[in-house]
Amino acid sequence: MSNVLDEPETFTLVELQQQLGGVPGHRILLRPTPGTATEADVMRLLDQRGVRCELIDGTLVKKEMGWKESVIASRINRKIGIYLATNDCGETSGEQGGIRLILGRIRFPDLAFPISRSIGTSDSPMVNSPRKPSPISLRISRSKC
Asked: Fewer CB within 10 Å: N-end or C-end of the chain?
């Protein structure tokens, strides 16, 4: 995906929503300007305001998760947990476990299962010690993103 700043002057909010995978407009933050946000902005909003955002191509998108999505992720997490009880190959994390996919992309999947070799040595959350990409992550969401 290209960065918003690389788009022509006529680039619209609808096109931005499409570029972000159909994210509803009420989740797209306009400050910092779409296309200019950084990982530091994600951490600042979380630390100072308690607002959890994902970083997608320089644009901050508020993280949403409802009851139904949480229940589904919890059920899947339970099943993976049963497997992991006898197979030491990783850990699971929920919607609080942020993952840096690539520079400029931070996601908070509803459920992630990083295999042991991809987990860093620190137990601290992503905002203090970014995790390597998770080979398996699950997004349960009403939007396409």
From this structure: N
Containing 56, the helix (H) or strand (E) segment is: strand 53-56
In whole angstroms, give the CA distance from residue 100 to residue 122: 15
pLDDT tens digits, one per residue of 7-54:
677 888 899 999 999 999 999 999 999 999 999 999 999 999 989 899
Q: Is the distance from CB of 93 to CB of 108 less than 8 angstroms?
A: no
With a CB cutoff of 8 Å and minimum separation 6, the contacts of 128 are: 122
Other Cβ atoms less than 10 A from the Cβ of 69: the count is 17
Q: Is the pTM of this model over 0.85?
A: no
| Sequence-ordered list of residues with C-beta below 8 angstroms from that of 64, at least 6 positions apart, any chain | 27, 141
CA–CA distance, 16 with 7 (Å, rounded to integer): 10
Number of H helices, E strands in the chain: 3, 6
